[in-house]
Predict the structure.
Amino acid sequence: MPIFEFQCKECGEVFEELVFGNNYGDIKCKRCKSLQVQKIMSQVAFKSGGKFVSASSSACGSCSSGACSSCK
Ligand SMILES: [Zn+2]
């Protein structure tokens, strides 16, 4: 069964939810029950990818090469 990771836009809670098909319109935040959640598949991919996470997503968002002076 497909499990996706979601983040609540209201409180920032991150949680995993089983999703059947594309029917994830009624998924609620585990903490505050808000329906304002977004799927964060990209971060799941980064997690499984390993150590590249912080360098590319937060340390330097302004360059695409990942090798500019602010990346290091
Ligand atoms: Zn929430």
Q: What stands out?
A: Residues 8, 10-11, 13, 29, 31-32, 34 surround zinc ion (CB under 6 Å).
